[in-house]
Structure prediction request, 203 residues.
Amino acid sequence: MLLETFNIGPYQNFTYLVAEKEGGEGVVIDPSYGIEPVLEAIDEHSVKVRLILNTHSHKDHTAGNDEVRARTGAKVVAHKVAPLHQDVSVEDGSVVHAGRLAISVAHTPGHTKDSVLYLFEGNVATGDTLFVGECGRTDLPGGDPSEMYDSLLTRVVRLDDALVVLPGHDYGVTPTSTIGREKKENYTLKPRTREEFLRFLKE
Prediction:
């Protein structure tokens, strides 16, 4: 499998290029501002980009959608409630394919109503649900602290410890992590009741 990470745009966004192999079919996850390096890599590796996967609808994760679509003809994938153009609408439990790549969807609202994780080949693209050492904000439009509690402490913590975390921003001490490491080190995943979590987010 081919997996390349790009730190682009003014907000330390991570955009990911994933393909079944060099010259094979693939996807772009969260195309941000300043997408040109990703487009160059698509050409360099001769990737046939079939899908654009948006973890959520914030502009810094979707700004490059149109450019990638225009260059590759890829279809935009997003949760069905996402307020953006989508060619393929997904929900919790959906699976999409690009060649031999099978990508599973987990709905994780909290940062936004349409936030999702994409799981594939031992990796999980977490968008702004989970960062290395932190979680996404819940005080923006569409954010919900109670939904974030459910997403983190009933969904994320049950994922396979070996999964490599591919976050939406370069906010941590390392660019990537694992679910197991985050369960040990990320203070937002510390076991709490819902009431404790809601108080914690207000601190």
About this structure: The CA atoms of residues 5 and 61 lie 14 Å apart. The mean pLDDT is 98. The radius of gyration is 16 Å.
